[in-house]
Design brief:
Length: about 325
């Protein structure tokens, strides 16, 4: 069973299946405020001192259990407004502090179910408005078509050999208002840039899987010479073990060898159907932003509070056009 087949709305289902993600209105003001209160009340227990962190990275098991349970209570019913027959797998706060060092590298999420027979998705819902200045999510559309179905903990990515600028050029920003969400296939490559605003960026996320799909966790143990162990798990597994632990006490039901070949840029582009000519005006602008030097982003974020880079850029373009027209007119009139 595939998440894409479980969307209630046909258009959402088609867009999700073809692009690997959809965006939609997800939470109302009261729900956002409830989540923010939960985040505020529990943040001191997280004990994670990192520029970017997610609740699952905390050493405090009680914090992991609390955030998982409470975020699920809020996000899972909202998900059922759009997708039926799904179950919550695990939930997190995703927190980006400010400044350099807060970006997150392009990655795919772990496999949670046996793919490609089943698949899973992440619902990522920011609690503040997000754009390219404060570290919104970026995705490579259609990258869920890559067939690396076993994405294990501690395993390298098959696109690590591709030049990072080429990867960036294929990324698009997903600006969202607080309470909107992106639902993305666990195979879709995503990342997030630095937060150059002066406020922490907090988002809540929930991994979902089809109700009928048994849950598994694959874990790569470099000591075992390319061997990947498959564990049969329940949703509780994900808060019981922090991201950094090797869950020794859970017995593997199977082992397999990692044999997915690294992708070349050409193969990667072919898989995702990427052509520069397909870049829409909107995406082209995103590319401009992606390549915008950090100092430039920082200038706009810090010197023009409340003004987005897009708005500042558009105003500058309009102003330049005005002066050019004014100059041409003056030359025509006064010679
Ligand atoms: O919150 C972010 O910036 C990144 C989120 C992410 O990578 C994920 O949900 O897997």
């Amino acid at each position: 069973m595939l998440v894409g087949d479980l969307f209630i709305n046909k258009e959402l289902s088609e867009k999700y299946r073809s692009e690997g993600y959809v965006t939609l209105q997800f939470l109302d003001g009261v729900q956002i405020s409830d989540l923010y209160k939960l985040y505020d009340a529990s943040a001191s227990q997280a004990g994670v001192n990192k520029q970017f962190f997610t609740s699952i990275w905390s050493d405090n098991i009680e914090y992991r259990r609390l955030t998982d349970t409470k975020i699920k209570e809020l996000l899972a019913p909202a998900a059922l407004n759009y997708i039926r027959d799904i179950k919550p797998v695990f939930a997190n706060f995703m927190v980006k502090n400010t400044g350099e060092g807060t970006s997150l590298m392009p990655h795919q999420d772990w496999s949670f179910v046996e793919e490609p027979e089943h698949d899973s998705a992440t619902i990522w819902c920011p609690l503040v408005d997000v754009d390219s200045i404060n570290g919104t999510l970026q995705v490579i559309p259609r990258s869920h078509r890559i067939s690396n179905y076993t994405r294990a903990r501690f395993l390298d990515r098959p696109f690590d050999g591709i030049d990072s600028h080429e990867m960036e050029a294929m990324m698009i920003d997903i600006p969202l208002r607080a309470g909107e969400a992106i639902i993305l296939n666990s195979r879709l490559i995503h990342a997030s840039p630095c937060n150059y605003s002066d406020k922490q960026r907090v988002a809540a996320s929930l991994v979902i899987a089809p109700e009928a799909a048994p849950l598994f966790h694959w874990i790569y143990n470099p000591k075992d010479d390319m061997e990947i162990k498959k564990l049969a798990v329940t949703p509780d597994f994900f808060w019981q073990y922090s991201c950094y632990e090797y869950p020794d006490s859970v017995t593997a039901i199977e082992s397999c060898h990692h044999d997915f070949k690294d992708l070349s840029l050409e193969t990667f582009r072919e898989i995702i159907g990427y052509e520069r000519s397909l870049i829409t005006k909107k995406n082209a602008f995103c590319l401009g932003r992606t390549y915008c030097p950090k100092a430039c982003k920082y200038f706009f974020a810090s010197s023009l509070p409340g003004l987005t880079f897009r708005a500042a850029f558009s105003s500058m373009a309009a102003l330049s056009l005005f002066f050019i027209l004014w100059y041409i007119l003056a030359r025509l009139i006064y010679g």
